Input
Amino acid sequence: MKKNSKIATCALTLLASISLNAVADKGSHLKHMHDEHENHNAMEESSLNWYMQGEKAANQAMIDARKAAKNSRKHAKNIILFVGDGMGVSTVTAARIYDGQLKGKTGEENRLFFETLPYQAMSKTYNTNQQTPDSAGTMTAMMTGMKSRAGVISVGQNMARADCTEIQNNTLTTALEHAEKIGMSTGIVSTARLTHATPAATYAHVPERNFEDDRDMAGKPNTAGCKDIASQLIDLKDRYGNGLEVALGGGRKNFIQRIDGADPENNGKGERLDHRDLTAEWLADYKNSSYVWNQAQFDAINPDTTDHLLGLFNMSHMEYEEDRANDIGGEPSLSEMTGKAIEILEKNKKGFFLHVEAGRIDHAHHAGNAQRALKDTIAFADAVQTAYEMTDPKDTLIIVTADHSHVFTIAGYPTRGNPILGKVIHNDTAGNPKTDHELAKDDMPYTTLGYTNGLGFADLSIGGDTRYSEPGAAGSRNDLSNIDTENQGFHQEAMVPLGSETHAAEDVAIYASGPGASLFQGTVEQNVIFHVMNKAGRLSKRSGLTPVK
Amino acid sequence: MKFTLWRFFIFTIALLLTTGANATTNVSCVYETIETKNSVTNEHEPRNDSQKQPSKWFFWRTEKEIEVSNAERSFGEKWINNNQRSVFYQALYHDKKFLLDFQPADLKILGKQADWEMRSNLFPQSLLTQLERKNTTKFNQYDVVRYEGKVAGIEYRVDWIPELKLPARVEKNNSNTLIITELKEVYMLDKTPYKQTSTEEYEAMDYADIGDNESHPVVAQLQKSIGIGYFHDH
Output
């Protein structure tokens, strides 16, 4: 008995020590970030200070490099995959500057939280049939370890789009499915519809990203053998483990029936023709489950007593961060959803897999509205910080990346601290800022941010998707002299006139922390992301599932 | 006690009358709109008006839905109002068996939220009350009241059918343009020979997804037109 007591005391001491170390480790990272930020704010910029700052960063890199070998062999209990949809490198740079400038700084020296994570790599994003990819094929690569075609969701590259005849031999196992099979808790969080390509690729298998509900498939040829995406989310429990613990995002219409009054918020119709109300099924399938569709209900959720949480906060996508406060029913932020998800998932001792997507960075870019894209990127960075602070870096692998980039550029030679959404002001010959906007060859000012293609310039009272209802203006210049380009309703100029701005093909960045994060090095194919999660989490080893079902 | 009951009775009758007055008649109409440009170059010279071809269009209305369509039945618009709580809008591309769904949030940012009454009655009541009431005539079996006046520099002449809460004719005249919209045929909805085209089988896309569907064959085609969704306004 005495011996047992000694063992217990020893174990408790050990646990406390491990826990304290973890807190200390996390605390040191956060402190390092804070100190770096404060130091930069406090210090007068000088040549010597740049030297010292660079040396300090190199020293930190040495420490990270020393830890890397050990880190690469460590196992992750929890895995969180953050995807900023369309968040190319230029978006990260511009968002970092915008974030800094919103805080009253010059901006360039600022860092978004995920930029401080210790390990980085570059990801090659092309699809097997497309040089410039789409979200469906890219997320399939990240979730299954196998690249595939554009437009398909976690099925093999040999499948023809929208043709289900070969699905039996082309269904690819996802990281989330491995996690479910092992008994880990799983969750998805997105500001897009939960049935949209990126979150869908975590749990669904279908050769057409637009098969979001059964009505989308009705009347289409060659759909036998496929199930719509929303039903696959709810039916996951019949395939692996006990199904998702958390699903928070938009896309309510894909889960409710096509009858008047089906929607609790506006009394309208959903999309389902199969008489299934998937929200009711969620509640019926699980004990201690909840379904919420507005901020008040979300806030009232007690994670201690909730084991399965479905939140569908909009009929379609959730609002842009810029517009979130104006939502009719009220919507939680990406950070709030991430926090609530972790509180529920972390109750499982076997660990959890969580995917978080900022789905609307991509949409704002498509509309040519940089301000909304950057604001959503900042909200995304906040969500990463929330996750980092709520978890233990010793047992939680956090990966932050994008599925693809956009044709979004930061151009001209604006002076240091020039408003990132503003018009370009050059330096004079002595290298000091001029006072007037720089003029192009057509004697008109121009913005730092722009798009290679899309609908182009518009100055609207409310920006974003409103752009699609206005005439295109790309391919010719507009006099911006009297336009407030920093306003949320401003849409940047574009060169090639297209109905919407497009994705871009250059590599995107991967940022990572936690066990196995050091496996991210150099420039890798996008499907390597799965394999890092798989190695760190020992997913396939423990699940016994094969890559192709 | 008796007094209270009497007051309650009066109140109920008044409420019923009010409700009756506000009820929407389910109708199907055919309208025609013609636009004339007033190109007077000199007051001594004769008017040289250029007239556009009259365009016919269909209008269907219930308490919860308003739909319009062009004469060719190739493009239409549908407004859906669920118990006055939220308004949804659909742009109907009948010739492509395709529709764009606009959520209340989309309508909000597009500033297209608050005109249900205008859409339902085809002429704003607030504007009608600013015009002078004139004589009464008939359109088919319906009483028609003529309203006339000038508001914000625009001359209006409106023949209003109170029973249907619809105009039989609207003349809108500013210095440059004269637009005349005329009711040609009207039917109770269940008796109309002009049935609405069912859109249940149409491919539906969210307005917010246009940007992500550049390569979609219908979207690509639509994007060549100027703006999507609101280019058909009456």
About this structure: Confidence is low (pLDDT under 50) at residues 1-21 of chain B.
